[in-house]
C-alpha cells in the first residue's frame, strides 16, 4: 500500500526506492537548490533526483547535509540519484564522472546512478562502467533514462545486469503504454520525469473536473495517477507550499474510471526531446 512519502517500491535487486521524490532539473545552484532540498527532506521527502548536467550537485549536497541535520535522520534513510552526462560517456570517463558527482555531492555513495540519454554507439560502454560500479558496491542501484524499448533490448543483449530503473518523460499526454509494459515484464522500475508536463496540464478541463471532485489540485490528481500506475515520480518545485502540496497525495484514491479518463488524454506528445532524435 502506498500510504506515505516514505513508502517504497523494491527494485529487482532488493533495494528499496521511494515512490515519490523531489526533482531539481533547472533549479539554480546555490541558495535556491539548497533550500528546496532541505525543505523537502524536512517535510518528509526521502528521495532526491539530480544529474551532472543540472550543474547543481554541490547545492544538492549542501541541502542534503542541512536537511539531514534538521530532520534528525541519517544519510542511509535517503535515496539519492544522479546521472552521467552524454559528454562523459565511455568506460573510463563514466567511472571518473561518478567520482566527480560524489565529490560535488559530498557523498560516499549514490543510491541510483543513471545513463542520462541513449547516445548511439556510446551507451553500452557506459553501461559496462555502471555494472562495474555496481559489482564493486560503489552504488546501490543502476539504471537508464530516456531509453525506448529498442535501446533497452540493445543494452540487455550484452549486459550482465538488467537496468533497475528507466526514467523517462511520462504524463497524461504521453502515457508510454508499450514502454511501461516492456519495463514491467523485465522488472525495470518505470520512473517519470516532467510528470506535470512542465505545468502545461494544470489548466486541463477534464483534469480540473476530477480534481474538484476530490477537493485536490490538478497537480495532485496527476501525481496520484502516477502512483496508482506504479510509476515512481519526482516533481520539481522550489516553493515550500508546492513541495508540501505535491506530496499530499496519499489521503485519497482515484477510481478505475477516473484513471481511465486521465489515461485517455494521451496524444503521444512530448515536452522534451525524443530519445530517437536528439543532438546533445
Structure summary:
By secondary structure, the protein is of the alpha/beta class. It is built from ten helices and ten strands.
Secondary-structure blueprint:
Elements: E1 8-10, E2 16-18, E3 22-23, H1 31-42, E4 47-49, H2 57-71, E5 79-84, H3 91-105, E6 112-115, H4 123-135, E7 142-145, H5 149-158, E8 165-169, H6 177-185, E9 189-193, H7 205-214, H8 218-228, E10 232-233, H9 240-247, H10 256-263
Parallel strand pairs: 3-4, 4-5, 5-6, 6-7, 7-8, 8-9, 9-10
Antiparallel strand pairs: 1-2
Helix pairs in contact: 1-2, 2-3, 3-4, 7-8
GO molecular function, one term: oxidoreductase activity, acting on the CH-OH group of donors, NAD or NADP as acceptor
Site (Lowers pKa of active site Tyr): 83
Active site: 54
Structure in words:
This protein is α/β, with parallel strands linked by helices. The chain has one domain (about 15-265): TIM Barrel. It has 10 helices and 10 strands. The protein has helices at about 30-40, 55-70, 90-105, 125-135, 150-160, 175-185, 205-215, 220-230, 240-245, 255-265; strands at about 10, 15-20, 20-25, 45-50, 80-85, 110-115, 140-145, 165-170, 190-195, 230-235. An 8-stranded parallel beta sheet has the order 3-4-5-6-7-8-9-10. The chain has a two-stranded antiparallel sheet with strand order 1-2. Helix 1 links the parallel strand 3 and strand 4 (about 45-50). Helix 1 (about 30-40) runs parallel beside helix 2 (about 55-70) and helix 2 crosses helix 3 (about 90-105). The radius of gyration is 18 Å and the shape is globular. The N and C termini lie far apart (about 40 Å). The relative contact order is 0.13. The mean pLDDT is about 95.
Amino acid at each position: 500500500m502506498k500510504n506515505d512519502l516514505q513508502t517504497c517500491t523494491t527494485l529487482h535487486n532488493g533495494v528499496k526506492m521511494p515512490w515519490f521524490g523531489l526533482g531539481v532539473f533547472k533549479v539554480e545552484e546555490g541558495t535556491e537548490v539548497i533550500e528546496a532540498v532541505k525543505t523537502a527532506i524536512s517535510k518528509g521527502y526521502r528521495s532526491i533526483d539530480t544529474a551532472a548536467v543540472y550543474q547543481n550537485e554541490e547545492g544538492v549536497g549542501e541541502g542534503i547535509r542541512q536537511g539531514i541535520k534538521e530532520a534528525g535522520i541519517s544519510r542511509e534513510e535517503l535515496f539519492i540519484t544522479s546521472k552521467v552526462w552524454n559528454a562523459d560517456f565511455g568506460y573510463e570517463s563514466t567511472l571518473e564522472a561518478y567520482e566527480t558527482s560524489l565529490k560535488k555531492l559530498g557523498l560516499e555513495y549514490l543510491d541510483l546512478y543513471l545513463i542520462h540519454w541513449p547516445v548511439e554507439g556510446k551507451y553500452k560502454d557506459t553501461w559496462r562502467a555502471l555494472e562495474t560500479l555496481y559489482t564493486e558496491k560503489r552504488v546501490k542501484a543502476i539504471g537508464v533514462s530516456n531509453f525506448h524499448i529498442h535501446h533497452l533490448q540493445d543494452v540487455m543483449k550484452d549486459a550482465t545486469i538488467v537496468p533497475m530503473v528507466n526514467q523517462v518523460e511520462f504524463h497524461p499526454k504521453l502515457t508510454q503504454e508499450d514502454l511501461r509494459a516492456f519495463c514491467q515484464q523485465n522488472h525495470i522500475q518505470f520512473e517519470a520525469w516532467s510528470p506535470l508536463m512542465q505545468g502545461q496540464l494544470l489548466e486541463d478541463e477534464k483534469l480540473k473536473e476530477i480534481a474538484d471532485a476530490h477537493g485536490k489540485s490538478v497537480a495532485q490528481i496527476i501525481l496520484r495517477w502516477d502512483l496508482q500506475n506504479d510509476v515512481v515520480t519526482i516533481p520539481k518545485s522550489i516553493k515550500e507550499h508546492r513541495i508540501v502540496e505535491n506530496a499530499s497525495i496519499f489521503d485519497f484514491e482515484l477510481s478505475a474510471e477516473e484513471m481511465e479518463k486521465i489515461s485517455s488524454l494521451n496524444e503521444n506528445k512530448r515536452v522534451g526531446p525524443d530519445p530517437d532524435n536528439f543532438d546533445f
